[in-house]
UniProtKB/TrEMBL annotation:
It holds the Pfam family dCMP_cyt_deam_1. It comes from the Bacteria. GO terms for biological process: pyrimidine nucleotide metabolic process. Signal peptide: none annotated. Its cofactor is Zn(2+). The keyword Zinc applies. This is ComE operon protein 2. It comes from Oikeobacillus pervagus. Keywords: Hydrolase, Metal-binding, Zinc. CDD domains: deoxycytidylate_deaminase (cd01286). The active site is at residue 72. Belongs to the cytidine and deoxycytidylate deaminase family.
Amino acid sequence: MNRISWNQYFMAQSHLLALRSTCTRLTVGATIVRDKRIIAGGYNGSIAGDVHCVDEGCYVIDNHCVRTIHAEMNALLQCAKFGVPTEGAEIYVTHFPCLQCTKALIQAGIKTVYYAKDYKNNPYAVDLFEKAGVKVEKVPLELPLNELLLSES
Ligand SMILES: [Zn+2]
Ligand SMILES: [Zn+2]
């Protein structure tokens, strides 16, 4: 029996969430996990009620789309909204977090960051993670998911 590892399971979840992204520039997903349980998830998307980049085009200032909230932030904010502690939690993200998300993750008490793909890895972000004692590990998505799901029948 092919049993999927926890790392691959949570990373797959983040990749599924990324498929919900509404910004065409980068599709990112993030899953916050505590004690092997998913406590929140997020993707790169607009503020609730605003238009979507996929419909209206990106709102670009200084070469960044300013319309969206990043996946990591959305996941953290979901915890804030529903009063779920993030202290000591782990996060699985499809891409290496940007500097702003890095700061938020550290400040929210996230202790481990698993990411699948390098993405403009900010040296200051790397430095901040190190100083904060946050473990950062690259976990590329392996996923013979279709095989795993379809081979049993
Ligand atoms: Zn956009
Ligand atoms: Zn970010």
